[in-house]
Specification:
alpha/beta; TIM Barrel; eight-stranded parallel barrel; two-stranded antiparallel ribbon; 9 helices; about 30% helix; disordered N terminus
């Protein structure tokens, strides 16, 4: 995430006009299960990368979560651009999706590539725009109209202008719809899709203005935001001195979502076990629950069997039991949230 910018007067105005929720809470509460995005296209499963195990999936489902954002490697799933998906990797991905669904989880597919394929950025001669559309045509066809599979277009594109990213996103959505897939699509902004910088002006425009131009033939999309609480909003520095600013940023984009008539999803957020972080996690998730007319839900970053125990945001359980961060999330162990109020695949 880029550095936190000074919050504008609009943010504080939004704090004053935040509206009460029209529902009991958001539909989706969950976690990112990291591991399948590791390694390169030639990686070996369980040596260079790993998909979530039955044990881990059962643990988080038992804690009351009902969605998993599932990062994976575009390079390994599609080893050659504009070519068929790897049958082996696709089988692994489908097996992971089934494992999650068997535990009552909705799955948010996440090509965790930051707007890149291999070492080349989207929209360059090495990775022309249609290559991204081609990925989603193929992937969309594989999971078309499965009500508990959502499509997250791309994780954190960051060094591409909003106007160029909008064109790429719209083409990918058109590709998904061209194969008859009506699944809900989550659209990030550029600049890491940070809530705190959503209105910030850069060459090519701000996310707040440009991303209003998302086009979907069936109008079944929402916006994905990320937001951390450390000083530079990267989620890597430890500490949560910017917790209040992070929550204010969510309030600000809540107002923006109401302006646009669309919904948002908090795809990444997190914090350490420090008291300030726990307070911040409670505040951020309360903002979502209290404004569930504007938010679909959240997925905490992150967990996974391979995460080091010292990773500051890690909520993978230890031998001693649960991490403290779980107690700060609005979960009811043994009872997953009712997501029936959120339509993910509209009628044909």
């Amino acid at each position: 995430m880029p550095s936190v910018r000074l919050l504008s007067a609009a943010v504080f105005a939004a704090l004053a006009v935040a509206q009460p929720s029209l529902a009991a809470g958001v539909c989706f509460k969950g976690v990112n299960l990291s591991g399948a995005e590791y390694g390169d296209r030639n990686g070996v499963e369980n040596i260079n990368f790993t998909y979530p195990s039955e044990k881990t999936v059962a643990y988080f489902a038992g804690k009351g979560m009902n969605i998993v954002r599932l990062p994976f490697s575009w390079d390994r799933l599609q080893p050659t651009l504009n070519s068929p998906l790897s049958a082996v990797e696709l089988d692994r991905l489908k097996a992971a999706v089934k494992r999650l669904r068997d535990h009552g989880m909705t799955v948010l597919l996440d090509p965790h590539a930051f707007g890149y394929y291999d070492k080349a950025r989207l929209g360059t001669p090495e990775v022309p725009a249609f290559a991204f559309t081609d990925l989603w045509i193929r992937l969309g066809a594989e999971f078309a109209n499965e009500t508990d599979v959502l499509f997250g277009l791309m994780n954190e594109p960051y060094d591409i202008s909003a106007s160029e990213w909008l064109d790429l996103a719209n083409d990918a959505i058109a590709g998904i719809r061209s194969v008859g897939a009506r699944n809900l699509v989550l659209v990030p902004g550029t600049r890491w899709s940070g809530a705190h910088g959503w209105r910030a002006e850069y060459p090519g425009g701000s996310n707040a203005e440009v991303m209003r131009g998302v086009k979907d033939p069936i109008d079944n999309y929402a916006y994905e935001f990320h937001q951390y609480m450390d000083a530079d909003s990267s989620g890597t520095k430890g500490g949560c001195e910017a917790a209040e600013a992070a929550n204010a940023a969510l309030v600000d984009v809540t107002a923006w979502l109401r302006e646009t008539g669309k919904k948002g999803f908090l795809g990444e957020f997190g914090g350490s076990q420090d008291k300030a972080c726990l307070i911040g996690l409670k505040a951020m998730t309360a903002t979502l629950d209290e404004n569930a007319d504007a938010w679909l839900g959240f997925s905490y970053w992150a967990a996974g069997e391979w995460w080091p125990e010292t990773e500051i945001n890690n909520v993978q359980p230890t031998k001693k039991g649960d991490r403290k961060q779980l107690s700060a999330l609005p979960l009811t162990p043994g009872k997953q949230p009712d997501a029936t109020s959120c339509t993910t695949v509209p009628p044909a």
